[in-house]
Design brief:
The protein has three helices and five strands; from the N terminus they run H-H-E-E-E-E-E-H. The protein has about 140 residues and is of the alpha+beta class. It has a five-stranded antiparallel sheet with strand order 1-2-3-4-5. The longest helix has 14 residues.
């Protein structure tokens, strides 16, 4: 189901809780909402649709992918950039890493570990900031 985008900074600044299999419906809501906003958005976190759970979705070319309870376990090559956000106005400066390794559960709650670099790594870092309550 397509959900409204939360713009309340107080809500967005709260840390999300770990997701469980009972939260699987949130994954589909996020994927639907990301697809509906595809022209202006490449990733979303559950708190952006009003759910304080550690679930993110990202666009990887032709597909959208979910990550549940994701965490970065390695990172390298920091750089400065500016990012915008569907939940906030304007752009903000931030530090990102060109290469990251992420452990997460996929949408079927199977454990995964994957390296990401470049633009995809930046999107993942932005969305993981969201679930950590970090406003970018």
């Amino acid at each position: 189901m397509i959900k409204a985008i939360v713009r309340d900074v107080f809500f967005l600044s709260q840390k999300s809780e770990p997701a469980t299999k009972e939260d699987a419906f949130v994954i589909q809501d996020l994927l639907d909402t990301l697809e509906a906003n595809r022209d202006r958005c490449v990733g979303m976190a559950a708190n952006m649709i009003g759910v304080k759970k550690n679930i993110i979705v990202i666009n990887i070319g032709m597909i959208n992918m979910a990550m549940v309870n994701a965490r970065i376990i390695k990172k390298s090559q920091p750089y400065e950039t500016e990012e915008g956000c569907l939940s906030l106005d304007g752009v903000r400066k931030t530090t990102r890493y060109r290469n990251i390794e992420v452990e997460y559960l996929d949408r079927n709650f199977k454990k995964q570990k994957q390296m990401y670099s470049g633009w995809i790594a930046q999107i993942i870092q932005h969305e993981l900031d969201h679930v950590a309550g970090v406003i970018i």
